[in-house]
Structure prediction request, 159 residues.
Amino acid sequence: MLDREGPVPVYKQIAEEIRGRILAGDLGPGEPVPSEAELEVEYDIARTTARRVARELREQGLVYTVQGEGTFVGEPGTPRPDDRIPVYQRIAAEVRERIVRGELVPNRRIPGEKELIKQYGVAKATVRQAMAFLRDQGWVFTVPYRGTYVSPREDWPKE
Prediction:
């Protein structure tokens, strides 16, 4: 339980909880620690506070961060599970599957950034990376100030 009125800053309290999980073996080498978005929801904190948690753990030498992928237990270069694909690619794969199944139809908007951020508990940059990945493959196109739409079926990649 966080002491929001006490002398120890909230980010240090949360970092200490995660440190305890790492030392207890609940979070092993190469495993991801909760994302900023997950920390925001779990502890009802601001994004800046969540960032300070990650920075505190990095300064203690317990974790390292890979831009666009997350923060992981161990030092930079610690092997991660082989089956782990970057979060943005997982999001892109799920959106692509919704397109293929017909849930998202050509020339209609896909869920917006805010909705995807909330759904996946990730940062805006991660959602943007997923959309760029889908755009590069031809699954979607973006109209400035309007949104991102499903590409016409003839523009979809040939699998």
